[in-house]
Amino acid sequence: MTLRVAVIGSGPAGIYTAEALVKQAQEDVQVDVIERLPTPYGLVRYGVAPDHTSIKSIANYLRRVLELPEVRFLGGVTLGEHLSVEDLLGSYDAVVYATGAMVDRKLGIPGEDLPGSVAATDFVNWYCGHPDVSASMFTLDSPEVAVIGVGNVAVDVVRVLAKTAEELSSTDVPHDVLERLGESQVKAIHMIGRRGPEHAKFTLKELRELGELANADVCVREDEAVVLGGDFPRQIRGNIDVLQSWAGRNPVGRPRRLDVRFWLRPVEILGTDRVEGLRLERTRLSEEGRVVGTGEFETIPVGMVLRSVGYQSVPLPGVPFDERSMTVPNEAGRIREREYVAGWLKRGPTGVIGTNKSDAAETVRTLLSDLAGHDRLRSAPIDAVLRERGVRPVTYDEWLAIEAAEGALAKSLGRGERVKLAGLEAMLRACRP
Ligand SMILES: Cc1cc2nc3c(=O)[nH]c(=O)nc-3n(C[C@H](O)[C@H](O)[C@H](O)COP(=O)(O)OP(=O)(O)OC[C@H]3O[C@@H](n4cnc5c(N)ncnc54)[C@H](O)[C@@H]3O)c2cc1C
Ligand SMILES: NC(=O)c1ccc[n+]([C@@H]2O[C@H](COP(=O)([O-])OP(=O)(O)OC[C@H]3O[C@@H](n4cnc5c(N)ncnc54)[C@H](OP(=O)(O)O)[C@@H]3O)[C@@H](O)[C@H]2O)c1
């Protein structure tokens, strides 16, 4: 009998899970990768920055997994909307949830709901052409923008804001988004960390890239670059050295300016009808190592505040969820009988793409050891359930048709290898003409 497994989510975690199932299983296995979008690869497609083409090429590896004879892609099918946990457990021997962490975290300060105060999640979705966000969502009409947070997502957002449309033209950014980037009025970008350079979460390679921007001067204040103590791990030492080398550097007159700031926390977003400023308080660490305010304030005249303070998972209907850690409670990937979890939904929103590979392998080891020697289910495949509900999944071949249409669009526009189609309708038209 064949072992049938459903993997929910086709991001790196879901696809590495499918691969590990095929590799590790000692018996015949059939894996359905069920994805709410018509397109696979999760944040590799809708998160990784468009100008990071070498990282995006991980999709070529993930593609080979979806092309394995034991693996099937079912796009446009949402757990919680088209299918329930009961449906899945009725059709598969086991289910692995790998739905990632799709929503933003809030700052919890006054003014956060003003127009112009936005989540990096939305901004990233916008420039990546995610179908949940329309191209008209952002108009970059403010000369000054603040980006809160000093992680790698903040660095991506800052880089996209700092680059010209010409610099991004060869990427897969949707064309109407590229046009809006071309009309950007942004002159000054403030990237704001609530602790010091030694606590920043960005990685050295990503930080260095900011220093290579052709269209923006990067500035760090000398007093904010000071770091006490000297015994830091290599990555952190590298960050400190780069930041200190920028400190006090004079702008050379590039069209945009990036100020990387430290020891400031946002306390209020100012404005009546929309964002008009950001009030910051200088910080220090308390004896217990907590960030505390010093009572010294400054206001910057920004018209847009982008919070890039981390992602979080959302509960799946019928699946246990810990509201404190915002993850699914599990033991080495096991949630309960026949239900498992992998990726950001399992461990929280940290780690690079590769981290999900070993994480998925752990979940699959647990699953296969739990199911060894158990009877296999003989019920009808999920296809009948979906048919009955009028749901027609997007097949892998249909996804390839979307990909081909993106290639054709890029060619017709004289842009790079591919330009993303904007919106679900355009994607469905491309694959079901
Ligand atoms: C903006 C950003 C940029 C990043 N850039 C890099 C980078 O350059 N390099 C790097 O190594 N790492 C990067 N990362 C980290 C990397 O993307 C993650 O480690 C990885 O994507 C997590 O994988 P995942 O499969 O758990 O989640 P995801 O990649 O989010 O995949 C989850 C999938 O589940 C689907 N889904 C959600 N809900 C449902 C549902 N109810 N039913 C069906 N399907 C559903 C989603 O549509 C999605 O396709 C970045 C992260 C972010 C946020
Ligand atoms: N190129 C790449 O490899 C790449 C690109 C993008 C993302 N990723 C990965 O994806 C993961 C998620 O990245 P991320 O940038 O979203 O998260 P992150 O690395 O956790 O960074 C979040 C940032 O937000 C700050 N922050 C949190 N709450 C705050 C608050 N209330 N006020 C002010 N600042 C606050 C954090 O500061 P504190 O440290 O003080 O909490 C930190 O600087 C990371 O593992 C990252 O490496 C990788």
Description:
Strand 1 (3-8), helix 1 and strand 2 form a beta-alpha-beta unit. With 433 residues, the chain is of the alpha/beta class. The radius of gyration is 23 Å and the shape is globular. It has helices at residues 12-24, 42-46, 53-56, 58-66, 85-91, 120-128, 152-162, 165-168, 175-182, 204-211, 234-246, 344-347, 355-371, 382-388, 396-413, 424-431; strands at 3-8, 29-34, 71-74, 94-97, 103-104, 117-119, 144-148, 188-192, 216-220, 256-261, 264-270, 277-285, 291-300, 304-307, 311-312, 334-336, 339-341. The longest helix is centred in the last third of the chain and has 18 residues, at 396-413. A six-stranded mixed β-sheet has the order 3-2-1-4-17-16, sandwiched between helices. A six-stranded parallel β-sheet has the order 6-14-7-8-10-9. The protein binds flavin-adenine dinucleotide and NADP nicotinamide-adenine-dinucleotide phosphate. Residues 107, 148-154, 156, 193-195, 199, 201, 206, 265, 308-311, 349-352 line the site of NADP nicotinamide-adenine-dinucleotide phosphate (NAP).
Short description, anyone?
The protein is of the alpha/beta class and 433 residues long. It has 16 helices and 17 strands.
Order of strands in the sheet with the most strands? 3-2-1-4-17-16
What shape does the CA trace take?
globular
Q: Major β-sheet, in short?
A: 6 strands, mixed
Q: Approximately how much beta-strand content do the residues carry? A: 15-25%
